[in-house]
Amino acid sequence: MTAQARGFSQGSLEKNPLLSQWLSLEHDGVVTVKAGKVEIGQGIGTALRQVAADELCVSLDQVRMVPVSTETSPDEGVTSGSYSVQHSGAAIRHACATLREVAMAMYCERFDQAAHAVSIRGGRFGSSSSDATSSYWQLGVQDLLAQPVSPTAPTRPMADLELVGSPVQRDDLTRKIFGQPSFIQDMVLPQMLHGRVVRVANPGARLRDVDMDGLRAACPDVTVVRDGSFLGVLAQREEAAIRAATQLAALAHWDIPASLPDWGTLVDYLRRAPCEKRVVAERHGQPDPGHVESSRSFSATYARPFIAHASIGPSCALARWTDESLDVWTHSQGIFNVKADLEVFLQRNHADARPAKVAVHHVEGSGCYGHNPADDVAFDAVLLARAAAGLPVRVLWSRADELSCGPLGPAHLVDIRADVSPQGQLVALEHTIWSNGYTSRPGRSAAGSLSFLAASEIENGFAAPVSLDPPASAGGGADRNAVPLYDIPNITVVANRLLEMPIRASAIRALGGYTNIFAMESFLDEIAAETGQDPVAIRLKHLSDQRAKEVIERAVEGAPWWNDPRPEGMGRGLAYARYKNTGAWCAVAVRLLAEESIRVLDVSVAVDVGMVVNPDGVRNQIEGGVIQSCSWTLKESVQFSRTEVTTRSWEDYPILGFSEVPKVEVSLIDRPDQPSVGAGEAAQGPTAAAIGNAVFDALGIRIREVPITPERILAAFSS
Asked: Tell me: the pLDDT tens digits for 52-64?
């Protein structure tokens, strides 16, 4: 049975149909694999090498992954949504299966052999009925790579695979752990200049005037670049650029509108702001008449503030602008979209003297969780490189700009209401959302707008886009995971997308799934408590999906402390979700201690991602998701005044410290006969709700707005 027949997707083959877009065999004994999904710490390079090596019957050392570039890589869009293995892995698997079949046919024809007698090892073909041997490289299949990938080429049986399903060690971690140059922040080009940009933390701010002469007098060796309200410096040394930018900031005068919402009444702002209403899902079933009688109604409101990406390494990019080409090096997750938007900029602003070619190259950055400022700093580098006479320019954002000027994860509000029968069965549920859309990435803006921050700052700039929501086919945005998968006969889900965006908002890990799952799974726990039901039992009785039930049961089984007596302040909580309603099944059980602050002690996670390519990689992804969610749920909230985002340092924006990281146990349910789905964003929502439920278990109070801080707990006790 082919992979396709078993339900495996074709990945990105429709857009990139040729073998040559995925594979190359220029070097004897080595297969080069080209993917369009970039490495953002998810270990995609290792997982894809495992898939390719197994399908081609070569060793792992014989597979080489090349860096992703718009020049040489298949266009797989944006690396997001936990699609890396699902899309790239499926496409590469089919490509390798096709190449193996092509080479097999050539070997059989050339040496007059029957296919059933042929074996392949290390890329060499042999036959049990002959001494004739050959290899991919000797057969000359490189010359046949212009043909399409066959989505029906038979893939190897799972039982024959040696690498897929094994915890192969990532080859990139050693140099990162020991601080060797690995990231774009470490990249150096010959004759490279250093750039810095000066701005204020309000996208509506405009530069009124600046004392250029004062700056030139103080820093004579520095080049000042101004284009409208875009203001930056170029210097030969980085410390000179930093010093000049600091002085320039003091010499600049801005018009700053009081356009930001009132932070203290953010929930009211979300409810009142102009919005576009959309019915996401509506279902009117016929509940058991006995359940309808005397049903009880429950309602609650849950909320999340704006949150930052808070990567350890501030965003960085390099650019070189000559008559022949514009080259950009960036850690953006969407280099093809960056290139498309640069083309729009060049066409409008430099149609008469634009570089002949635009190329965007991905270089890994240190931390990336969605639409962070990687795209913005890339465009900053382009604007500064325009004034650098062909020399390459490196731009690094400051910590303050990283936290206060980059796109944030949107604030998100959920009203949820349910009717529950006397038997404790949910018979109706309404889930209503208010939020900005969850994407304003490059390549997705309406005509006339560009999402680069500086695109609206330059003279006669582009309009800044209002963020949109991805369609349901891509997992949705604010509505992600809002449609419950529980067996509830009547549901209504409504999303209200804000039509104004005084604070930049865009994609952050898990999109709306984080808050929607926090709301639904907290609410279900509230109903369980009010109706005297066990929190595990109420979930199981509303689920008919056996894979969902299994992860819940495995998460509890993996928590030996689940039924222990609990001393004062100790609490445990559970939550479950299937990410995007089509991805990984994940259940999380949490044990925490509530004293002066909340401390998560133990986390038991069970996850089902279908076929597991690299168990260690999946565990890493789940562990990272749990830890980040602990930080979001207990610590993180961006602060702002009416005129500026005021979060500018780690003191303003605390994140979970290393000493606060809980013990995380991950139980994998491997299903080698099922398609792989991603693990990167499966745990964030369930972890948040499990923490909220555990806080209630420990203290008897329900905190419905994250972060769950000591201040919020004291306020809840007071009220």
From this structure: 999 999 999 999 9
